[in-house]
What we know:
The complex is a heterodimer. Chain A starts with a helix and ends with a helix. Chain A contains five helices and no strands. Chain A has helices at 3-8, 10-14, 20-32, 34-52, 62-75. Chain A has a single domain, classed as Orthogonal Bundle (Arc Repressor Mutant, subunit A), CATH 1.10.10. Helix content of chain A is 73%, strand content 0%. The relative contact order of chain A is 0.10. Chain B has two domains: 14-99, Rna Polymerase Sigma Factor, Chain: A; 108-213, Winged helix-like DNA-binding domain superfamily/Winged helix DNA-binding domain (Arc Repressor Mutant, subunit A, Orthogonal Bundle), CATH 1.10.10.10. Helix content of chain B is 59%, strand content 0%. Chain B has eight helices and no strands. Chain B has helices at residues 15-24, 28-50, 53-69, 80-99, 135-147, 151-162, 167-174, 178-200. In chain B, helix 2 crosses helix 4 (80-99), helix 4 (80-99) packs across helix 7 and helix 5 (135-147) packs across helix 8. The longest helix of chain B has 23 residues, at 28-50. The interface between A and B is large, with 34 and 47 residues.
Amino acid sequence: MTCTEFLALLDDLIDDSVTAEARAELQAHLRGCEHCEVTLSTTRKTIEIYRSHEIYEMPAGLRDRLHTAIMERCKKGC
Amino acid sequence: MSTIQPLTAEFEPHPDVALVERVRQGDVSAYDTLVRKYERQVFRIAQHITQNREDAEDVMQDAFLKAYEKLDQFQGNSKFYTWLVRIAVNESLMRLRKRRTGKMVSIDEDIETEEGSVPRDLADWAPDPEQNFSQAELAEILRKTIQGLPPGFKVVFELRDVQGLSTEDTAEALGLSVPAVKSRLLRARLQLRERLSRYFRRKKGVRETGIEK
């Protein structure tokens, strides 16, 4: 397996949607290729960091504003 | 003689279906439940596309109002959230077009870029690299890093990786094909990884295998 072939299956590997056979080939490639090993671990870390950090906090009061707007709309007929 | 029970588990309706039904029957509090469930996600999508806090606030409000008004058009064969995302994305794009008069903005535009398609920064990262930054610094790094991506890439990454939607639901919500979602996701992941490497790579010494620019 070449690095290009590995990269083509990177997402499937991360999303755990590869066949057992493909997984064995990917793992064999990883054992001999430090670059792909780093690419895999740092891509996983990238996803994990974005998943565990709220980068856009919702402003306080926005929900109340929305609730009021919906109730207003409702008065005109739900 | 016992009767054979049908396997209902697989066909259990999504909990949103019951909420939508209650709203249709005039129960506004059921809509509040839907709002509370999805407001943060919708707000983040609007932020990714508009890149402006005020616009994102307006988009969130408009999207939920529009969804409320159009609830009769909602077909039970798609999920409520994917339907809502579609409305939010359209509202965001409309807002953006108003702001940048004349400039077309689209989510299905495929940006041909070499960036990230071949990993260049091959240096390993420090263990738990986020520990080297304060929460505020880290949030700023994550925002700055994702802001540089094309809108379609950002939203695909947000829906698939941050919010955990399936590829199929993401495709439906964005009106893209499944292969298009997959291709954008791979490039979004690799570009983000590449850009974050600038901050997170192991400092001098341990492993310097990357190509220095």
